[in-house]
User: Which sequence fits this backbone?
C-alpha cells in the first residue's frame, strides 16, 4: 500500500469493513455552518463523519444536515428520515417523507455548562449518480436544561445525483455552532 502522507490518518475497522481514512478535520467556533465541500467521492464509496463537543450559541435548538449536489446545496423538502429520540425522560419516534434537512443533533441543545453533542453519521453512495444517498445517525450528549439527549436513526435523499459535499447547520435561524468535525472516507480492503 502506498503511503498516505501526514495529512491522512488510517483507522482499521477490522474484518471486511475497510479502513477509515481521514479526509478533513474542522474545529470551529461560532460559525453559521460547517461545510465539507471536498468529500473525495471518486475515491470513497462510503463516508463517516465523527463529531464531538458540539455546542450552539443559543439554547433549545437542533442541528440539521444537507447535501451538496454537484456544488449546489439541496434545500428542498426531498429528504426522508426516521429517528428515535430521547430528551430527559421523554422518548419519541419522529419521521417524515419530505423535509428540507436530515437530523444531525435532533434533541434540543442548551447553553448550560457541559451541554454538548457527540456522535457519528455514516453515509452511503454519496458520489454515485445512479444511486440514492443514505445515512445513519447516532448522537448523545447533555441537552437543554441539563437533561440527557440521544438519537439514532437513518434517512435517504431519494433522488439520483452526484453528492459532493455535506453541510451541518441550524437552518431555521442563524444559530452559531462550535465543535470538532472529522470526515473520513471508508476505504475498501
Assistant:
Amino acid at each position: 500500500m502506498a503511503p498516505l502522507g501526514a495529512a491522512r490518518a488510517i483507522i482499521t475497522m477490522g474484518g471486511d469493513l475497510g479502513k477509515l481514512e481521514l479526509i478533513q478535520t474542522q474545529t470551529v467556533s461560532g460559525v453559521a455552518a460547517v461545510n465539507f465541500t471536498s468529500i473525495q467521492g471518486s475515491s470513497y464509496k462510503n463516508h463517516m463523519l465523527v463529531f464531538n463537543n458540539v455546542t450552539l450559541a443559543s439554547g433549545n435548538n437542533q442541528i440539521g444536515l444537507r447535501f451538496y449536489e454537484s456544488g449546489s446545496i439541496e434545500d428542498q423538502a426531498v429528504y426522508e428520515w426516521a429517528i428515535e429520540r430521547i430528551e430527559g425522560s421523554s422518548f419519541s419516534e419522529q419521521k417524515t417523507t419530505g423535509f428540507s434537512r436530515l437530523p444531525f443533533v435532533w434533541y434540543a441543545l442548551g447553553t448550560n455548562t457541559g451541554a454538548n453533542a457527540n456522535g457519528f453519521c455514516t453515509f452511503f453512495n454519496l458520489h454515485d449518480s445512479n444511486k440514492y444517498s443514505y445515512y445513519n445517525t447516532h448522537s448523545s450528549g447533555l441537552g437543554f436544561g441539563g437533561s440527557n439527549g440521544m438519537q439514532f436513526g437513518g434517512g435517504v435523499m431519494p433522488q439520483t445525483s452526484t453528492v459532493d459535499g455535506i453541510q451541518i447547520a441550524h437552518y431555521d435561524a442563524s444559530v452559531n455552532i462550535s465543535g470538532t468535525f472529522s470526515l473520513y472516507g471508508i476505504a475498501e480492503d
The two ends are 11 Å apart (CA to CA).
